[in-house]
């Protein structure tokens, strides 16, 4: 997994969290709220939905959630999310299930940008969410 560096672009990271192991998903909501302390409530809700969907996606198909990393940058204000999972087998290229397709729609609607990278049996999904556009 690419590490969360001290910068996102040219902007310093002001808050971050690294969650790993089997308790990563249960601590994610609390971590999002902590990392986004002082952010608009609408941004916190959007970030929480995004992180929860990325975690749900990481567990689909029997994959194992390894870690979740959150980093808040100041200029432009954004949240960067990295979710890492271990795949149970080789990707088959099968069509998305309706549940997976719905999840991708949620990610597409909320994230400013997102993508995935796979190396051997480990897949990292990253997403960026611009902050300051959602108000209350």
Please give the structural blueprint:
Elements: E1 7-8, E2 11-20, H1 24-35, H2 41-59, E3 64-74, E4 77-86, H3 98-110, E5 113-119, E6 122-130
Percent of residues in β-strands: 35-45%
- Tell me roughly what share of residues is in helical segments: 25-40%
Characterize the biggest β-sheet.
6 strands, antiparallel
Overall form: globular
Number of contiguous helices: 3
Alpha-carbon distance between the two ends = 34 Å
| SSE string, helices as H and strands as E | EEHHEEHEE
As a whole number of angstroms, the C-alpha radius of gyration is 14 Å
Q: What can you see in these coordinates?
A:
The chain has 136 residues and is an alpha+beta fold. It has a domain at 11-88. The protein has helices at residues 24-35, 41-59, 98-110, and strands at 7-8, 11-20, 64-74, 77-86, 113-119, 122-130. A six-stranded antiparallel beta sheet has the order 1-2-3-4-6-5. Strand 1 (7-8) and strand 2 (11-20) form a beta hairpin. The termini are far apart.
């Amino acid at each position: 997994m690419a590490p969360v560096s001290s910068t996102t672009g040219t902007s310093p990271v002001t808050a971050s969290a690294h969650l790993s192991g089997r308790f990563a998903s249960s601590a994610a909501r609390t971590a999002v709220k902590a990392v986004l302390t002082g952010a608009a409530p609408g941004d916190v809700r959007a970030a929480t939905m995004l992180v929860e969907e990325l975690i749900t996606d990481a567990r689909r198909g029997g994959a194992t959630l390894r870690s979740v990393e959150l980093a808040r940058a100041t200029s432009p204000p954004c949240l960067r999310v990295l979710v890492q999972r271990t795949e149970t087998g080789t990707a088959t290229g099968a069509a998305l299930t309706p549940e997976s397709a719905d999840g991708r729609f949620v990610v597409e609607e909320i994230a400013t940008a997102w993508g995935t990278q796979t190396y051997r049996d480990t897949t990292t999904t990253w997403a960026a969410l611009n902050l300051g556009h959602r108000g209350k």
